[in-house]
Amino acid sequence: MIAVIPTTGSNIFSIVNALQKLSQEIVVTEDPELIRKARKVILPGVGHARSMMEKLQKAGLAEVIPTLTQPVLGICLGMQILFEHSEEGDTKTLGVIPGKVKRIPFTEYSLPHMGWNKLEEVERDSWVAPFQDDHFYFVHSYMVEAGPWVKACCDYGLLVPSVIQWQNFYGTQFHPEKSARVGEKLLQRFLCL
């Protein structure tokens, strides 16, 4: 079973639809016991870091998520809140990964970073190695800081960390569920970990 955690502003329908195309048994739940029992957990997120953290705290999941031992995939804001702190609303986040999230610095490009962008600087032995130079769909104004967790970047006037892994926690800054066939392939790769 794949547990999808419903979060503020997240695109649950798109995630569930993408997973169903991959013939997966899915449950959308905030139940800590179901989440702990799941084979994989997906933490999608669209919106504001503070709102998402408030929703997770209210559901008792801010304490549960960092203790999970199965593979967990954070998508967009769901990836960002795995870190310790976000500049967005000066928000203390889950603290699974020892880094921070900051607003994308000014470049010649506008914010939010919205549209298709190519994965570059892909770590050769990482879970996303097969996706070097593939294009994924991004919508964001904040980025995680660089560190050993970064497995791939994209170029948006500067290198933006786009895929991470830290122990059993994985993340994509882009939306695989909105990235057509290549996004489905990436979700399938995560589900096979």
How are the secondary structure elements laid out?
Blueprint: E1 2-4, H1 12-21, E2 26-28, H2 32-37, E3 40-43, H3 49-58, H4 61-64, E4 72-75, H5 77-80, E5 83-86, E6 91-92, E7 97-103, E8 113-118, E9 135-140, E10 142-144, E11 150-155, E12 159-166, E13 169-172, H6 180-191
Parallel strand pairs: 1-2, 1-3, 3-4, 4-13, 5-7
Antiparallel strand pairs: 5-6, 7-10, 8-9, 11-12, 12-13
Structural class: alpha/beta
* CATH fold call: Rossmann fold
Q: What distance lies between the first and last C-alpha atoms, to the nearest angstrom?
A: 14 Å
| Domain tally | 1
DSSP strand count: 13
Describe, in plain words, how this protein is organized in 3D.
The chain is an alpha/beta fold. The protein has one domain (2-191): Rossmann fold. 24% of the residues lie in helices and 31% in strands. It contains 6 helices and 13 strands. It has a 7-stranded mixed beta sheet with strand order 2-1-3-4-13-12-11. The chain has a 4-stranded mixed beta sheet with strand order 6-5-7-10, with helices on one face. β11 (150-155) and β12 form a beta hairpin. The longest helix is centred in the last third of the chain and has 12 residues, at 180-191. The protein is globular, with a radius of gyration of 15 Å. It starts with a strand and ends with a helix. The model has no long low-confidence stretch (mean pLDDT 95).
Short description:
The chain has 193 residues and is an alpha/beta fold. The chain has helices at 12-21, 32-37, 49-58, 61-64, 77-80, 180-191, and strands spanning 2-4, 26-28, 40-43, 72-75, 83-86, 91-92, 97-103, 113-118, 135-140, 142-144, 150-155, 159-166, 169-172. It has a single domain, classed as 3-Layer(aba) Sandwich (Rossmann fold), CATH 3.40.50.
